[in-house]
Amino acid sequence: MKDLLTKGSIVIVLGTGGVGKTTVTAALGIAGAAENLDTALITVDPARRLRDALGLKRLGGRPTRLSRAHLASAGLAPSLRLSAMMLDVKGAWDMMAERFAPDAATRKRILENPFYERLTAEFAGAEAFAALQQLYDLHETGGFDLKIVDTPPAAHAFEFLEAPARFTRLLDSRAARWIFTPSLSAGRIAVRLASQAARFVVHELERFAGGRVLTSVSDFFAAAAESVDAVVDQLRKTEALMRSDAVRFVMVTTPDADRLAQARELIREMKADGLALSAIVINRFLTERSLRDATRDSAAFEYLDDIEALEREMTGDTGPARVVKSLARHRTATLDAIARVAEFARDLPPGVELAVAPELGVEGMHDLAALKRIAEFIMNGIDVASILEMVNSRTAHRPRARRAAAQR
User: Fold this and answer.
1) What pTM value is reported for the model?
2) How confident is the model over 322-342, as a mean pLDDT?
């Protein structure tokens, strides 16, 4: 994992909602800063999870450097250079419009256009695109050694990566340019005929779309005609950056069966689109003590066998028996999780690294010191797959039904 956090790198953290992307993103930021890299964390999550994870009172559209006192209070080196920002989506779009519009009047027409407002607020991928644009700008200016991006909490995380291509198709559409920017046609007669055709199409479609929806689209493309080529060029540069060696994709998932299935699907989609996954972090996997012991002692999980022995000896409905039953449920859940993750690890594509982070509880989202502990687990370089196989092999004597359940 340390090889991913290098000067000039962009780490994009992917994963479906609820797997702890923000926690892992913040932990990677701490790890990067600990490698003496000037590190920036970028999030587009309006729920302010990154702000809470870092223990900050506020987080805005410009990078906020964590203070020396704040770092020291969590047991971190005060000299760490770690900044964070929450993207202002509308602001990022407006900055791009102001950058490419040829004059003040055109900028005003674009910024006040109803279609532009809907485009920047509601179009699928608008937040992702704005985040990628700001990321591109940060990369080009070289303001930070390392950039780490917490992707939007979407049901389909792959949409984040597809945003530049989607907007390119929208803004560079020949059909849109013909209908809404007829001045691109050659000759006055062609312009007049195209204008009449455009007005007719807009009028007829408005009967179904209602109001002045399509008129605002026409006005937008007319105002932005001189800027579209520059915007599309910017989009293509951003898409090229996403496929460059500077970008490393890190996926976050959990040991839950449905989350691992979603991770497998995301891996397939990335492969089909030609995007290389660098690493996967299995978040909320076991406890801190279990993971720490597993790196030191091959007998770390022998206590699970002791629980099994106690379960055979302790029967009835007494208080101690109920405690043992609770421990037995813990044993089953632990072994099943290990079996699922071990199977997942065996199927990973070549070159994809695997790291794990323990379950810390809710305090992990609000405590900078807890994030430091997570970072230490992610970055410790242990051979996770070997440990999983070692522990999993100890359960071979389990009843067939339990093994089948674990494999499922």
Assistant:
1) 0.78
2) 82
